[in-house]
């Protein structure tokens, strides 16, 4: 269950990062309110995951999910440049997140 909580926290991080762009510097009320709610929800689920998972692993995975998800939304929704270097860097983050997950698995 902690990994599920961490996944939800990471997806909520993506949502609030995108929401942060929509606030236009906190000048738009409803996007700002929604963004704050998403932030609180993301931190809540992260805190649930931290009951069991090591902080270094959980925080790195949480930020990795947020970074990759936000970068992909930037590429596909906001039409940011799709350079080879950007895609390779996203893959490196994904491999780091997967590596941390595998390294955190209990011994057989």
From TrEMBL:
Origin organism lineage: Bacteria, Pseudomonadati, Verrucomicrobiota, Verrucomicrobiia, Verrucomicrobiales
Membrane in keyword set: yes
One MF annotation (Gene Ontology) recorded for this entry: transmembrane transporter activity
Compartments where located: Cell membrane
Residues that span the membrane, as ranges: 33-50, 57-78, 84-103
Family of this protein: Belongs to the drug/metabolite transporter (DMT) superfamily. Small multidrug resistance (SMR) (TC 2.A.7.1) family. Gdx/SugE subfamily.
One example of a Gene Ontology biological process annotation: xenobiotic detoxification by transmembrane export across the plasma membrane
Membrane-topology annotation of the record: Multi-pass membrane protein
Protein name: Guanidinium exporter
Stored Pfam families: Multi_Drug_Res (PF00893)
Entry GO CC: plasma membrane
Major localization class: membrane
Keywords (A to Z) from UniProt: Cell membrane, Membrane, Transmembrane, Transmembrane helix, Transport
